[in-house]
Design goal:
With about 250 residues, the chain is α/β, with parallel strands linked by helices. The chain contains 4 helices and 11 strands; from the N terminus they run αβββββαββββαββα. Strand 5, helix 2 and strand 6 form a beta-alpha-beta unit.
Length: about 250
């Protein structure tokens, strides 16, 4: 356990702002991702377990050791493997990598002998641990997961949480508690996490969409800024880029 903790660099995880347009639901035919109507449900809103692993907030996996330290990936490099079940999704996974590597110093390399690495597995939906938790770390992707969904999960694995859980979120969004599915209200609770002193981002790829966990098709999260649609999965926002580059000390060499 201690070996895993020392191999990963300690992380400072925080939230980012959002301004969502629509979430893409199609597979990429290139690096460009199509933008469709906002989803009333999402591949990121799992309601059960993923391979007997506890899921919270719809797509965040909880380590068996609840006190496990969430770390950054050493040298801003994330080694990975893709399971045989997902070979037909390899293009989408690499497109998601490119969404991140094009705007940050973070790199993705096929796993060789590294102790810590991401293992892309077929799943019920899209889900990931937050940060480097050590060893072969599962990241799940279902056929319904778009390139943007996969990118969202990779960013979780890099160390970022959901934007809508920030402690300052009530200035920017309203949570429609009466519209949330029974038993899912905890997914919308404020979490005391590091914000890296960056403003709230309604445009973040890490923000919930308007209808996540809706029990009747009514909005569960609404932006307080007129005309701003939250929950986009087509690109990293400027603040997403700033947060990742700050977290991994890009350009500080």
């Amino acid at each position: 356990m201690w070996l895993l903790v020392f191999i990963c660099m300690l992380s400072v995880v925080g939230g980012v702002p959002i301004n969502a347009t629509q979430e893409d639901t199609s597979h990429a035919t290139g690096v460009l991702v199509s933008m469709l109507e906002p989803q009333r449900s999402s591949s990121e809103t799992l309601e059960g377990l993923e391979d007997d692993v506890i899921v919270q907030e719809g797509d965040i996996l909880i380590p068996e050791d609840r006190n496990a330290v969430q770390n950054l990936w050493s040298d801003a490099v994330m080694p990975y493997t893709i399971s045989q079940e997902l070979t037909d999704r390899a293009f989408d996974i690499h497109a998601a990598f490119k969404m991140i590597s094009d705007v940050t110093c973070i790199r993705f390399t096929p796993h060789t002998t590294e102790l810590n690495y991401i293992e892309f597995r077929n799943g019920k939906g899209c889900s990931s641990y937050v940060g480097c938790v050590g060893g072969a770390q599962a990241l799940y992707s279902a056929p319904s997961c778009s390139v943007g969904n996969v990118c969202h999960e990779i960013i979780h694995a890099l160390g970022l949480h959901h934007e809508h859980n920030r402690r300052d979120r009530d200035q920017y969004i309203s949570v429609e508690w009466s519209n949330i599915m029974p038993g899912k209200r905890s997914n919308f609770e404020v979490k005391q996490r590091d914000t890296q002193n960056l403003p709230y981002d309604l445009h973040s790829i890490m923000h919930y969409g308007e209808y996540y966990f809706s029990q009747d098709g009514s909005p569960t999260v609404l932006s307080k800024s007129s005309g701003v649609q939250i929950g986009q999965r087509s690109h990293l926002s400027e603040l997403d880029v700033l947060r990742l580059n700050s977290l991994y000390h890009c350009g500080n060499d």
